[in-house]
Amino acid sequence: MKITRLSVYHVDLPLEHPYWISGGRLKHEVLDATFVKMETDAGLIGWGEGTPWGHTYVPAHGPGIRAGIETMAPFVLGLDPRRVLDVERAMDLALPGHLYAKSPLDMACWDIAGQAAGLPIADLMGGGSRTPRPIASSVGARTVADTRAVIERYRQRGYVAHSVKIGGDVARDIARIRDVEAIRRDGEIVLYDVNRGWSRAQALQVISATQDLTVMFEQPCETLDDIAAISGKHAAPVSVDESLVTLQDAARIARDGLAEVFGIKLNRVGGLTKAARLRDVALAHGIDMFVMATGGTVLADTEALHLAATIPDAHCHAVWACQDMITTEIAGGRGPRNIDGHLHLPESPGLGVHPDEDALGDPVAVYS
Hints:
single chain, TIM Barrel, 2 domains, four-stranded antiparallel β-sheet, 37% helix
């Protein structure tokens, strides 16, 4: 089997509500999504999606994905998509770095490999837990009152896990954490996501002021060096996501005890092939995980769900899905959707959901 054609689509995905992170430092209203249709000489077709969270969040952006695919396409065409390691190496040789641009091609390969084997991707990867995974909301609000309103909106949709965005103002962050904890329900999973919004001093101020609550903080500072510098000065559990990009990052975090939880974002780390290695490092060191799409549609959410299903239930806190945050539907309502705040693994071979091509419009590029 060989890859014979790559068709690339660009779709803007408006968010249902304006979204702020890092205390309002970054505002997002529309996501730039790239979809890839991978065709083969065996008649199998795979789909991939890459949707960074805007252009200002981390070093990744929609036009960069499309430019990266243009660079990598000549090296990928003619390869067997079932040999995901061959495709991975070809992409890495053609374009060092730029992992976010490789993720949609990797997803499409896994989609085809699963279809060829007659298995969902998670089963093909050797996992495939059917335990429904809680969906973590993403609460990007500017005030305490707004935070309450957004959490309640997600509760009405059945959500039992919440990623509450903080950072940027010490007093406001302390007040927000205490307010959320005051309304937190039994069994709810709450992660306070700083998105690199604190200095070392600010992190220690907030963590010390809330230590009686025993809450978890995600990416409290900009770099792993910053997180390492404060790690011996507090007892709060820490999750790392923005600073978890490569296998080398995972090895350092595990070796130096910098975090108790990995937040694995599929698009950021380069797709399922590379993410599986981060998962294995975490499991080998007793580190739990959240698995997340960086942003996007049900395709990206489903990819995250497949990886989450390869993690033992006790070590996977939740998945983050973006489909309830956007107003554009590209798959006609198909694929894993929110059921009582959880996603259920699809049983169909491959990814388990494909877009309606009419909803994507004409391709912006075709390589063959």
